[in-house]
Amino acid sequence: MKKVVLLGSTGSIGTSTVKVADDLPDRIRLVALGAGNNAELLLEQTRKHKPAAISICDPARAKGLQAAVGPQTPVFSGEEGLIQLATLPEADIVLIAIVGTAGLKPALAAIRAGKDIAIASKEILVMAGEIVMNEARRHGVRVLAVDSEHSAIFQCLDGKAAGSVRRLLLTASGGPFRDKKLWPAEKFPEITVAHALKHPSWVMGKKITIDSATLFNKALEMIEARWLFDIEMARVSVVVHPQSVVHSMVEFVDGSIVAQLSTPDMCLPIQYALTYPDRAPNSRVQTNFAKLGQLTFEEPDVARFPAIELARRAGESGGTLPAVLNAANEVAVQAFVNQKINFPQITETVQRTMEAHRIVSQPTLDQILEADAWAREKALPAL
């Protein structure tokens, strides 16, 4: 039985994690649930799974929840509430599915409390990959991937040393604007929020779906992979695979390529992270190759989607630059959602902010958070 703290329980990954726990009641117990501000769904999850504690962002809503669940279930709030959950003595693993940077301090708190962590919030490793992985090694805990691409690479590596790898191949669907004939670059200013939210393969939250449309999601995943697998950026590649069946691949130094495949369903990588090193039976994911018919691959169009090259530059430069890329992108995506900027201006905002930044090498956590705050402020004036 794995005792799991789930941070971000009411979001897309969180609700999929709850489904996995429902599928495997003899293997997974949700001992704590942390949510943003969806008090209604959090209350429903709490009544069903009876966690030892819960947390919600807003202290005012925490008071209402406490009255609803009764004194037997403590209700925490804010960042401190997430840290309280992440360090619960009875927890075996903390799954972090919080969008943006809010999961960083709870992740470090969990590691320092001796908990394995499963990361669905890629910003944690993008911002502070070196610090997080060093802390994990120091405390003897595992950092497990929940993103389907990184889970695939983890499964393909199967414990092989980084020196045996020629390159990691992260697959990308290409997003809703992959077709150059339908969406040439000159039409990008016409893209609406509704267009960007129509992902061809996955049903996800708003931020990650728009990141998939700009390919910033894949860009962030490149930096995440660099730290998760101790592979320099030069050996991290992206290939567009519209069917989203090959979740990623590893090419080894002898030329062999190992891939992990399945029909798209986030429950599979979530289950693997929570049951690792075992594989638990589950019939939720079914893959029929005859029905799939064909699997195709193509190079990413970096002229229309510069995010990949921006991420490569940030990952190679290191220091505080990845945190700046991530923060500027968060601000720009929100501005696009609020219809303050157009679609191409998301990438333009990130590039402009990166170019204005003076990189701090080997930064402390405080310096990373300072760079994050600086980038958000720097990105705002043009928005």
Report on this model:
With 383 residues, the chain is an alpha/beta fold. The protein folds into three domains: 2-145, NAD(P)-binding Rossmann-like Domain (Rossmann fold), CATH 3.40.50.720; 151-317, no CATH class; 318-383, RNA polymerase sigma factor, region 2, helix turn helix motif (Rna Polymerase Sigma Factor, Chain: A), CATH 1.10.1740.10. Helix content is 45%, strand content 15%. It has 16 helices and eleven strands. Strands 4-3-2-1-5-6-7 form a seven-stranded parallel beta sheet, sandwiched between helices. The protein has a four-stranded mixed beta sheet with strand order 9-8-10-11, with helices on one face. Helix 4 packs parallel to helix 5 (104-112) and helix 14 (321-337) runs parallel beside helix 16. The radius of gyration is 20 Å and the shape is globular.
